[in-house]
């Protein structure tokens, strides 16, 4: 069995122990995480996990990737996760960190490994939520972070239309849910636009839009966009500084080559002068031909050296010109990208304004329908909508009273009831 497992492993050998340990940590780092912190979230049936396992081998000084064990797995109805070559491991009620530890311990024990493998357990998909009762489309729905009862009702198509004229309630909740999502998206776009305007103007601080003065989530949005702006600014400055350093090095090289060329030219002039004298003496028989030939060769060598220096200087000047052009292109591309992002953001805001206006019109219409229904003589009763959540805790199902803003957790069952109250 060990040979079969080894065939699926890839061994990465590195030179230094420190680098190998860093590579091992990088190999088991979670590449993407869901908004709920893994340390606080307890797994349950139908949660999907992404597992990756690597082992640092002290004796070989290498990292072994257990690819046959790595993959995506679902917590089964028994609360167990079935992993090849490892078997079933309890998962329900555990955190991802506890699962990581359990996988490493089980593999070390099962395969008799000297070093315990490091396992990364990432929550790939939450278990679903369920809607029941007075809902247009009861059933199972995927869980999304920050899900509330109101948003869950919107997923199910809103409240069920009753024969007693409660259509307005469903329409109102649908429109209200859409409006809530659209307002949140609009706030995010407004902060993005403010950040882009600050970057274009060269400011180091984002000016808060007046539309968001009283927004409840504005502090978090502003902090997020400010951090993004600072990061982008640092990246551009690093790129520009690198180009400036390159230009400085090239200019120093050009200056050094110019001095070297001047020295070589002086030597060349002296050798040419000496050669001319020797030629005169040779014609009179007062100098040897070998001396003349040596001077000719020296002249040729110095001329070649001068040509090489001039060529290197020309190449350095071309590189300076290219670095200058790269600097200009970087600034132009940066400005063009900012302008394009601002234009796209403005277009998204315009589209969102139309959608938001439509949702508010639908909410107004639903309220008007409600008022008209209240004025009819036959409407002697009204429906009172109540919500509750059935949640599993410590292996037992408990029912919790809820309202539209109550947060929903993975695996919850949301019950919607319409109680008729006589006037």
TrEMBL record:
Molecular function terms in GO for this entry? polysaccharide transmembrane transporter activity
Q: Which residues form a coiled coil?
A: 240-267
InterPro entries registered for this protein in UniProt: HH_AprE-like, Poly_export, Poly_export_N
Q: Which Gene3D superfamilies match?
A: wza like domain
**Polysaccharide export protein N-terminal domain: which residues?**
37-123
Q: Which Pfam families does this chain map to? A: HH_AprE, Poly_export
Q: Which UniProt keywords apply?
A: Coiled coil, Signal
Recorded hits in PANTHER family, A to Z, give: POLYSACCHARIDE EXPORT PROTEIN GFCE-RELATED
Q: What is this protein called?
A: Polysaccharide biosynthesis/export family protein
Q: Which organism is it from?
A: Ensifer oleiphilus
């Amino acid at each position: 069995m060990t040979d079969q497992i080894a065939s699926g492993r890839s061994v990465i050998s590195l030179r230094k122990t420190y680098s190998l340990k860093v590579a091992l940590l990088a190999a088991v780092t979670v590449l993407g995480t869901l908004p709920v912190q893994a340390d606080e979230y307890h797994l349950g049936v139908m949660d999907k996990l992404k597992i990756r396992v690597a082992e640092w081998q002290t004796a070989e000084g290498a990292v072994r990737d257990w690819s046959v064990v790595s993959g995506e797995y679902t917590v089964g109805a028994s609360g167990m996760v079935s992993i090849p070559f490892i078997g079933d491991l309890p998962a329900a009620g555990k955190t991802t960190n506890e699962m990581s530890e359990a996988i490493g311990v089980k593999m070390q024990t099962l395969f008799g490994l000297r070093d315990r493998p490091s396992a990364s357990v990432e929550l790939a998909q939450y278990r679903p939520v369920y809607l029941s009762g007075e809902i247009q489309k009861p059933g199972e729905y995927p869980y999304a972070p920050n899900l509330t009862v109101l948003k869950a009702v919107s997923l199910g198509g809103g409240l069920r239309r009753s024969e007693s004229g409660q259509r307005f309630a469903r329409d109102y909740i649908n429109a209200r849910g859409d409006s809530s999502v659209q307002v949140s998206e609009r706030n995010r776009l407004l902060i993005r636009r403010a950040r882009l305007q600050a970057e274009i103007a060269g400011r180091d601080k984002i000016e808060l839009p007046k539309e968001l003065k009283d927004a409840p989530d504005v502090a978090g949005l502003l902090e997020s966009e400010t951090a993004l702006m600072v990061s982008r600014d640092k990246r551009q400055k690093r790129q520009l500084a690198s180009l400036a350093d390159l230009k400085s090095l090239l200019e120093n090289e050009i200056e050094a080559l110019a001095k070297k060329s001047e020295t070589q030219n002086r030597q060349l002039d002296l050798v040419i002068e000496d050669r001319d004298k020797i030629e005169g003496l040779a014609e009179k028989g007062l100098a040897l031909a070998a001396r003349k030939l040596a001077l000719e060769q020296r002249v040729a060598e110095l001329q070649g050296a001068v040509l090489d220096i001039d060529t290197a200087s020309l190449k350095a000047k071309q590189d300076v010109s290219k670095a200058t052009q790269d600097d200009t292109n970087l600034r132009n591309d940066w400005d063009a990208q900012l302008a394009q992002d601002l234009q796209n953001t403005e277009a998204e805001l315009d589209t969102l304004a139309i959608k938001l206006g439509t949702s508010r019109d639908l909410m107004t219409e639903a309220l008007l329908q409600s008022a008209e229904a209240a004025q009819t003589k036959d409407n002697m009763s009204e429906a009172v909508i109540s919500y509750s959540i059935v949640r599993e805790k410590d292996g037992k199902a408990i029912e919790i009273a809820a309202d539209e803003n109550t947060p929903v957790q993975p695996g919850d069952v949301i019950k919607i009831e319409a109680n008729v109250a006589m006037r």
